[in-house]
Specification:
It contains three helices and no strands. With 85 residues, it is mostly helical. The chain has one domain. Helix 1 packs antiparallel against helix 3. It starts with a helix and ends with a helix.
Length: 85
Amino acid sequence: MRSLMRSQLRAAMVSLGALALLVGSLPLLFSLPEVFTASDLPSPAPFVWAALGVAVYPVMWLIARWYVRRAERNERAFGKLVEGR
């Protein structure tokens, strides 16, 4: 049981780390257009909304899908271990 809990915790921490990296890097990503654009150009608002509204959700879905598949695989392996196969 301890090995199952450890492997589930490891998968959760990897998923949380990937999500934190994704969400944590957004402020840096949003500040880049202001650094590299001239002051007379329009604001980078469309880029920000596209990143928040479109680009983030597929990546979050992939992280969640990976986590669920990993958790199911861990549970199957634990079930085989308990059954003795």
